[in-house]
Prior knowledge:
Number of strands: 0
Number of helices: 5
Strand content: under 5%
Oligomer: single chain
Amino acid sequence: MATGRIRDFIMDPDQTGQIQSAISEGEYYGMQTFDQALLKLIEEDRVSYEEALKVASRPQDFRLMVQGLGLGMGR
C-alpha cells in the first residue's frame, strides 16, 4: 500500500526525499500532489491556468504538466 510506503519514507530520513514522487504515483490509493489537484481544477474550468501557476508548488514542473496534457495556457 502506498500509504505504508509514505510512512516508511517518513521514518527513514534517508528516504524522505522520495515522498513527493510516491504521492504523485499514488493516485490509485487516493493520493495526489497539490499540483495534481490544481491540474484537475484547470481541466474542470474551475481555476484559470494563470491563477494555478501562481500557487503551484513547483511552477516549472506544473507548466510542463499542463503542456503535456495539451491544455491551453490561456484557459
